[in-house]
Amino acid sequence: MSTTPDDDATTGLPARGVFVSFEGGDGSGKSTQSRLLGEWLEQAFGREVVRTREPGGTQLGRTMRELVLHGEDVDPRTEVLLYLTDRAHHVASLVRPALERGAVVITDRYLDSSLAYQAGGRELDLARLRDMQLWAVDGLLPDVTILLDLDPALLPQRLSATGLAPDRLERSGEQFHRRTREAYLALAAAEPERWRVLDASAGIEEIAEQVRAAVAPLLDRARARAAGAAGDPVDGAGGGTGGEPGAAPRPGGRLDASTVAP
Ligand SMILES: Nc1ncnc2c1ncn2[C@@H]1O[C@H](COP(=O)(O)OP(=O)(O)OP(=O)(O)O)[C@@H](O)[C@H]1O
Ligand SMILES: Cc1cn([C@H]2C[C@H](O)[C@@H](COP(=O)(O)O)O2)c(=O)[nH]c1=O
Fold first, then answer.
1. 262: exposed, middle or buried (C-beta count within 10 Å: 0-12, 13-18, 19+)?
2. H helices within 54-125, ranges in order?
3. Where is the composition biased (Low complexity) (predicted)?
4. Which CATH number belongs to the domain containing residue 212 in this structure?
């Protein structure tokens, strides 16, 4: 959940939540997979799951989303700042508080979207953008980032499946989407301990299984950490009983509050 493995750098409290981000091109299946992962986590682990997204995970963010995706055309630097404003508020008001109370936070896009789309796609300076992102979120990085890698040639097919008119970014052209994809792959290659790259052209259930396999070990680690902090045995009665990747939902599993992205 944070840049340090055992403690939250900001609060000094034990880091008990788990932070998962989905990344990828438009129409790569992020919403589909974040929904499936959230349902599985609630049912199999009885964990509080907070599903959210960028831009648009907060009320302010929904205004920013409308502006950046459906408003007047803006230059690339203005675009960076719109996404950054959404992100800073999202982390401060929703993501960090949820992690601090022990929730699993699943976000459909996070700061890597800006590095791929604005540095890669719009060809802005990567190092500068990375510094700005880390400042805006006070250093908070996901425990795991799942890249749903899709050839942009498949984008029209995926977009038409949604039945929605393409937004300003989706209309940015094939070369833009190719640069974005290359940027994602380079980010993942540079930080393999955080990223998992999955083939987004595979079937929905096959991908869901790979996502579960990537996330389940993090839950075990967080559970052990939380139990240690509370003085409980790791396999004690409190909380979920855990589960294997792909395990059937646990009967009687506790369903906690879930914030679902609008
Ligand atoms: N693995 C898959 N194979 C085929 N179709 C898929 C797959 N995953 C998702 N889809 C379909 O593709 C469309 C886009 O999926 P989804 O909305 O999950 O993508 P997304 O990455 O969240 O898109 P966006 O970035 O545009 O919001 C939907 O119609 C969805 O049902
Ligand atoms: C967070 C973020 C997003 N974008 C782009 C990527 C997509 O084209 C849209 C968001 O739409 P989605 O339906 O939620 O995928 O915005 C970006 O360019 N930079 C960012 O930081």
1. exposed
2. 59-70, 76-90, 96-100, 111-114
3. 226-235, 246-262
4. 3.40.50.300
Range of the domain at 41: 18-259
- Give strand ranges (E) for 54-209: 104-108, 144-149, 195-199
The H or E element spanning position 234 is none
Beta strand residue intervals within the chain, DSSP E: 18-24, 49-53, 104-108, 144-149, 195-199, 258-259
- pTM for the model: 0.85
Q: Is 1 among the domain residues?
A: no
Task: With CA atoms as reference, report the closest residue to 23 among 139, 134, 187.
Answer: 187
Tell me, using a 6 A CB cutoff, whether residue 161 lines ligand 1. yes
Between the CA of 201 and the centroid of ligand 1 the distance, in Å, is 10
Reply yes or no: is the peptide bond before residue 251 cis, omega within 30 of 0. Answer: no
Decide if 243 is inside a domain. yes
ipTM value > 0.90? yes
Q: How many independent structural domains does the chain possess?
A: 1
- Residue 80, CA distances (Å) to 131, 155, 179 in order: 12, 23, 17
- Give the pLDDT confidence of 207-237 residue by residue, as tens digits: 999 999 999 999 877 767 767 766 654 333 2
Q: Ligand 1 pocket, 162 CB below 6 A?
A: yes
Give CA–CA dist 108/195, Å, rounded.
15
CA of 51 to the centre of ligand 1 (A): 16
Tally helices (H) and strands (E) across the chain. 9, 6
Question: Is 25 annotated in some ligand binding site?
Answer: yes
